[in-house]
Write a structure and sequence with these properties.
By secondary structure, the protein is an all-alpha fold. The protein is built from 8 helices and no strands.
Length: 130
């Protein structure tokens, strides 16, 4: 089995750039910082105790996961698979092959939380304006 070299990922991304990665172009056009206040304000909840699992993924990363689902019409399990499989998805999300990846349950819980708090329409209409 071959071991990855230091520049292998950089070379792969360079080739994807030459081929016209649409997700890289999307990342360059959208000011993602616009979504942070919406997500932080809408998803903040009062914590009654320190019990339970701490938040492991940023709300912005998870929102970008929902965008990938929407753009590519993916179910939660397929989204997890595609993030693990596609270098373009990893780069769009700001992850590396070694990064922890949100699993299908985490994706589902985040989407349901966004819907329950009435943020879905505001987030996606803001995204559409870009």
């Amino acid at each position: 089995m071959l071991q990855s070299g230091f520049f292998d990922l950089e070379d792969r991304f360079g080739k994807l750039d030459q081929l016209g990665d649409p997700l890289k172009a999307l990342n360059e056009v959208i000011d993602w910082s616009v979504f942070v206040p919406i997500l932080e304000e809408g998803l903040t909840k009062e914590k009654r105790s320190k019990a339970g699992r701490p938040v492991s993924f940023s709300p912005l990363l998870m929102f970008k996961v929902l965008i990938l689902q929407s753009l590519y019409n993916l179910a939660d399990a397929q989204t997890e698979f595609q993030i693990r499989d596609r270098f373009t998805f990893l780069r769009f999300l700001g992850l590396t092959p070694e990064s922890r990846i949100p699993d299908e349950k985490t994706i589902w819980l985040f989407r349901e939380s966004v819907k329950a708090r009435g943020l879905h329409d505001e987030l996606f209409s803001t995204f559409t304006r870009f």
